[in-house]
Amino acid sequence: MTTLADLAQEHVTDLAMEPYWWRSLPQETEGPEQIPEKTDVAIVGSGFTGLSAALTLAREGRSVTVLEAGRLGLGASTRNGGQVGSGNQKFRVATLIEMMGVQKAEAMLREGVAMLDHIGALVHELKIECFFARCGRFRGAVRPSHYEAMARDMEDLRRHAQVESFMVPRSEQHREIDTDYFFGGSVLPQDASLHPGLYHAGLSDAAAKAGAQLIGKTPVRAVQPEAEGFSVHTDRGTLWARDVIIATNGYRQNFNKFCHKRIVPVTSSLIATAPMNRERLNALFPSGRVYGNSARVFSYFRKAPDESRIIWGGRVGRNAGEMDPRSYAHLASDMLKVFPQIADVGVTHAWSGRIGYTFDEFPHLGRTPDGIHYAMGYCGTGVSRSTWFGRKIALQLLGKYEGFSEFTGLRFPSHPFQTFAPMAVPLFEQWYRAKDALEK
């Protein structure tokens, strides 16, 4: 078996190049031979956004057809680390206030808390068995100055959004994590975790039971406005829809220029270790939280919820291809910097997923100039954001006041060099990694 030490040196013999979470997905089934001729709402994308929107619309009596290019849930919704936060981690509170003003910033922060609460309530309501837990999040400071900045930000978060947190100095961090790598860290005790594969399966089942039709292996090639609706052209025929929602996030929006020009796909990569002795694993993570760090090229990690493994994620490594095990060597190296005592532990799975990044680092929902609804741009905090925005965009489509979001109506910037942005992402990642190393 390939060990962490082997992978770090790119000596790889046997890795499953697919998400660990897929082991728990229902067996893939063939969809209908033909797609329907018409529907009230066509939703492009079967991730958390699309399923949340479909569930909301079907419960309101709309006919809903969800179209997915590959298998249902092929994208980031079944490829992420299963960490669930408030959706406001991209900016420090002080920075958000500088950008938006106090009133708007506080409203955004409160909506972020509502996102987190909503996903917990939905899991409870639908009785989804996905290991959802309010375990809390520890974020380790990779430099002493980062610890001080965290402390100020946590105080601002408490003052402006009433979010509780506490700081853990380096002298006490072993009660949170068995490493000397960090210089202390912060804890958000209400952040959560879940099994993304099982959560997706539960949402799929709920949407289907509500009446939504979920169709995989049906790529959408074009969406054209028509009188009182849209024609949705797929590889399996054309569907007429009164309304269309784009819910693809970091995956293809080529059929819609407006969204395509505003989203940059960024690859996030993960590995899963082999099962470990449970006592040894618990000693590494005594508080049982989800974890991250303060580096520019950050890592995020946790215990697997269903087996005694570690799930470790970070940005893309060398540009050898998502199916090349050598592309994941940097994750093993990063893990061994934090936990050098587990070099002998095996690695079984490696996979990647695409995050939808925006040029302003805010998520966006609204309508394109030709009337297509969209919700996307979660910038790496997609589990809670996507579930929330899927419901919100569905309610907006229905014309309901409850569909209001503080993120509705934000200017959605494009960039003249967007076409080249995906190619530049790996270069920026390497530059940020170099800066992280130089500052230590």
From TrEMBL:
Sorted UniProt keywords: Oxidoreductase
UniProt KW Secreted keyword: no
User: SUPFAM superfamilies, from UniProt?
Assistant: FAD/NAD(P)-binding domain
The source's domain of life comes to: Bacteria
Using the record's annotation, list all stretches that form the FAD dependent oxidoreductase domain: 40-394
Q: Does the keyword Transmembrane apply?
A: no
Q: Provide the protein name.
A: FAD-binding oxidoreductase
